[in-house]
Specification:
Layout lengths: L1 H5 L14 H13 L7 H4 L2 H16 L14 H6 L12 E10 L4 E9 L5 H14 L3 E12 L2 E3 L3 H13 L1 H9 L6 E10 L2 E9 L6 H19 L2 E4 L12 H6 L1 E12 H8 L3 H19 L8 H11 L7 H4 L3 E6 L3 E11 L11 H10 L10 H26 L3 H8 L3
Helix pairs in contact: 6-11, 6-16, 8-9, 12-16, 13-16
Amino acid sequence: MADDAGQRGGTPRGVESGVDPERECLIHTKLKAGSMKLYELERELAPMDAIRLRRDFIRKETGSPLENVGLFSIGVERVVRRNCENMIGAIQVPLGVAGPVQIKGEYAQGSFYLPLATTEGALIASVNRGCGAITRAGGAEVRVLHDGMTRAPVFAARNVIHAKEVADWVGGHREELRVAAERTTSHGKLTDMVTFVAGTSVFVRLEFDTKDAMGMNMVTIASAKVADLVAAGTGARLIALSGNMCTDKKPAAINSIMGRGRSVVAGIALSHEQIAQILKTDAKTIAEVNSRKNLIGSARAGAMGFNAHAANVVAAIFIACGQDAAHAIDGSTCITTVDMTDTGAYVAVTLPSLPVGTVGGGTGVDTQHECLQMLGVAGSGSPAGANAKKLAEIVAAGVLAGELSLLGALAAQHLARAHQQLGRG
């Protein structure tokens, strides 16, 4: 049974291909000649046959055997329609768990095992140590500060006077634009719009409550309707539906200041005894490492994030849980702080931009869906939006665990030793 499951993406043992050899040969000839495109295979074949024939063609074209990418367990009917064009197989990323970690959030409450997909040795061990420290200290305090996905169309005005008029028109027609935007979706709500002018360029940054979806498709469609109305009402030319003031998949100060996706903060109070026993150092040293490395070092480097390795944990959870992996860059804008207390230290992470969702996108892929089920956040929450906020709180707690552990390793001068033991190639 296990062998058959491992063959699901190729031709399972004992199961014949749905395409006869003569037709396969004809299709390969057409692909080679260019009279048929790779993306057209699903129009003529069942998804699994299309994947196999496409992989066969690429194998012959490149000389690579591609034996292992053809072995996978995910169902492909949904994937080839929604997630991956020209599919030839799947890449397997090792999946581990850290925890359990105790979380005291508004939405995430209890003990959680964190699924982490990574090829970086020592990462899961590090997060696991941080989870232990958090749990022994009573659990991470976590709160969602802000919730809103953005899209920012850019318009061309005739001159700066016209640019100001466009901005003023948007401000005076907020309700009309909100109603039009919300007609495009049964879930999303337009919650804010802010205009920015640069010469003759006018940017309208629209923010939406997307409930349990990460929401980029939702806000793009709604923003297109708003953009049409702005252009018609002002005479400004719509240049691009995304004008990079959103800002999507790029580190940006505007996201750090105004937030994007879910803005989350997590913190934990550690006693002197816990710091000594678990992290093998002391509160004063951890505070100095954070100050000189995460704050001063990052500032001197001109970095947009002030943390040790927050994006590491964000990326690993995102890959495991079907989030848009490119948004892991938002994790790099995390700010890690350490406050000395009478009893030890209070360590906190602030993630101003965390685009996550529990419906849509990659969340429906079988393996990723299972990881969301592990966390109790698969699908829509009750009330709507609760699961996405819960996931955001869990991610923040994971980032806190990773920051705690790495700060401790640096403070105790253990970093090189840990990587030598766990991360060697």
